[in-house]
Amino acid sequence: MDGLIAEHISKTYAGAHGLSFAALRDVSIHLEPGSFTSLVGESGSGKSTLARLLVGLEPPDQGTISLDGEDTSGWSTEDWRKRRTKLQAVFQDASGTLNPMRSVRSNVEEAMVNLTSLSKRQRRERIGKLMELTHMEERLLEVPARQLSGGEQRRLSLVRAMSIRPKYLVLDEVLSGLDLISADAVMRVLEQYHREFDCAFLLITHDMDSAYRLSDTILTMQAGQIVRVGIKQ
């Protein structure tokens, strides 16, 4: 079955004094191709843990995760790397995916060189279109990533992920900490990219207004479980 699918997954971490903490408890989710789903909940509810499991940064303790019918259990780092053309993620801390000393262009092109067969001219054309889409001036392409503002770094991470043209994109708190203008700019980028390329999004956020604006389906997470499913009419 096509989609990014988690079935009955659980994740527990060791805590202080020998105690354990259940971050996820029997969670199931199906991100269908072309859909836009939001996962909302308070801090500590398990949203970011779910994101890390879905994109292969950690394995679940129980349950299965599949990507377009392929069970990801036992995938090696190389197996996951090959699927990065299909599945990308952007996290709140953009600095974790960017090399601060390298230029904006170099940060974006690195992913394209490793994961696509595009020529240099094709890469430059795609980067230019994405810079325009994200309302980032082309002069920034030669600027070191460390000189960008927080909002610009967040948009650069989106450009980097979108440059691969993934089928699925997991966004973990990409709107958090942004001022209203920057957040609105990012949301407009997501809306336009979703329309143009039919990419499936999983937006993880604590902001219901953003979730309602962007999503077809809203999942509510509490204490490691999905407690509510809402379909926007």
What structural class do helix, strand and pairing data support?
A: alpha/beta
Radius of gyration: 18 Å
Mean pLDDT: 90
Largest sheet: 6 strands, mixed
Strand and helix order: EEEHEEHEHHHEHEHEE
Total discrete domains: 2
CATH topology heading of the largest domain: Rossmann fold
Count of β-strands:
10
Number of helices: 7
Roughly what percent helix? 25-40%
Q: Poorly predicted ranges (pLDDT <50, ≥5 residues)?
A: none
The rounded distance between the terminal residues' Cα atoms is 25 Å
Q: Given this structure, which CATH class of the largest domain is correct?
A: Alpha Beta
Description:
It contains seven helices and ten strands. It is α/β, with parallel strands linked by helices and 233 residues long. It has a six-stranded mixed beta sheet with strand order 6-7-8-3-9-10, with helices on both faces. A four-stranded antiparallel beta sheet has the order 2-1-4-5, covered by helices on one side. Strand 1 and strand 2 form a beta hairpin. The mean pLDDT is 90. This is Nickel import ATP-binding protein NikE. One of its GO terms (molecular function) is ATP hydrolysis activity. Pfam families: ABC_tran.
Question: Features of this protein?
Answer:
Rossmann fold, four-stranded antiparallel beta sheet, 2 domains, globular, 233 residues, alpha/beta, six-stranded mixed beta sheet
